[in-house]
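hiii so um. not sure if this is the right channel but i have a protein structure encoded as tokens and i wanna go backwards to a sequence. like what aa goes where. can anyone help
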């Protein structure tokens, strides 16, 4: 399949890491001792094996929320709400997420559907530990367990990114490429991909920001004739290359690679907005088109998202010192990490992925298990060498 997938931050690294007495792969002792939040460090258990995800209906808490947000933003509190850009992204001071009631969490889900990226400053999630973060995420839906990345021991629902502080890590990343920017939507290969992500950088050097692109606005920017041409097209998403990358580095495969077909133009059942649901890391082929046609069209759409800075916003994590917790939608937003930190600095973060509905292009198909957009095996056969 020959798709490059180079994120060494999520996989076991046999050059630096260790194996404990139980056969579990762990970060080496020197790095463990230096970690600001060691309870969030990744482990990889080769004995853990999971079946592929099955279709499940999604009960979106945003659909039962009060649109005036009285529980998320009570009037008797000193709260600052600032738009990052006019059309998407909101930064909030004065709300402690860990203290939200269920109604407040419902309103959080609705605000996220509307604004797509939310950043809350000065949060206590990291201090409360991985168990609390996991339980907070479970309120919004089923949580994804990543097929190959590391997780804190006993908390498989947390996906950990950990860039080791060893000299040469960044040099290795850029040994054969000029940039490592890779806009994507999390785990789009699953039958019910991530609806949204909870993300926090715990520790980092300067830099290491995240850039988000508004794929709802990206769709709106297209001409009506072009929008009409995209309607009815579907993209094959697969985790085969991610799984191969993990295996190559000596990592684990707790779940076999999976593939699913999703609409290219996705409908959000909460807002009714349409977005471009494409993903260079996992979205490999428009199944209704020939290879050259598919490559040409996907390249245009990826380029449209990546180069349009007036569709984007940037979140600075400030080395983890401001204790920012971000929420970002995966149906209407694409994102990429920025690899501009100095060599020799750790970058340690956690991610919780809340699974949502099976992607749809028409509201009549919402939460329908029998909705079948295409033949996955035939689509896979079209991208593998013959």
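sure thing!! here u go:
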């Amino acid at each position: 399949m020959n798709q490059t997938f180079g994120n060494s931050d999520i996989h076991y690294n046999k050059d630096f890491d260790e194996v404990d007495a139980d056969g579990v792969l762990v970060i080496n002792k020197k790095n463990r001792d230096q970690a600001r939040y060691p309870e969030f460090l990744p482990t990889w258990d080769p004995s853990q094996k999971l079946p592929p995800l099955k279709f499940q209906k999604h009960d979106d808490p945003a659909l039962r929320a009060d649109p005036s947000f009285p529980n998320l933003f009570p009037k008797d509190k000193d709260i600052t709400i600032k738009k990052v850009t006019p059309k998407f992204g909101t930064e909030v001071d004065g709300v402690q997420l860990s203290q939200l009631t269920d109604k407040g969490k419902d309103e959080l889900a609705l605000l996220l559907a509307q604004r797509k990226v939310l950043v809350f400053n000065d949060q206590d999630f990291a201090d409360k530990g991985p168990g609390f973060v996991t339980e907070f995420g479970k309120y919004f839906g089923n949580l994804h367990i990543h097929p190959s990345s590391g997780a804190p021991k006993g908390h498989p629902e947390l996906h950990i990114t950990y860039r080791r502080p060893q000299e040469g890590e960044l040099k290795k990343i850029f040994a054969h490429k000029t940039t490592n920017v890779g806009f994507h939507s999390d785990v789009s290969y699953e039958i019910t991909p991530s609806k949204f992500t909870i993300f926090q950088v715990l520790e980092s050097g300067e830099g290491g920001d995240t850039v988000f692109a508004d794929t709802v606005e990206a769709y709106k920017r297209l001409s009506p004739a072009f929008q009409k041409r995209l309607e009815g097209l579907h993209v094959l998403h697969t985790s085969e290359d991610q799984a191969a990358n993990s295996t190559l580095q000596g990592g684990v495969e707790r779940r076999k690679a999976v593939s699913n077909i999703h609409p290219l133009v996705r409908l959000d059942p909460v807002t009714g907005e349409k977005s471009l649901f494409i993903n260079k890391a996992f979205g490999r082929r428009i199944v209704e088109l020939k290879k050259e046609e598919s490559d040409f069209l996907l390249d245009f759409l990826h380029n449209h998202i990546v180069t349009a800075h007036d569709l984007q916003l940037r979140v600075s994590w400030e080395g983890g010192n401001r204790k920012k917790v971000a929420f970002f939608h995966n149906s209407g937003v694409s994102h990429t990490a920025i690899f501009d930190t100095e060599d020799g600095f750790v970058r340690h973060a956690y991610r919780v992925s809340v699974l949502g509905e099976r992607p749809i292009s028409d509201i009549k198909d919402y939460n329908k298990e029998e909705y079948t957009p295409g033949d996955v095996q035939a689509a896979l056969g079209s991208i593998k060498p013959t």
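oh and Residues 1-6 have pLDDT under 50 and may be disordered.
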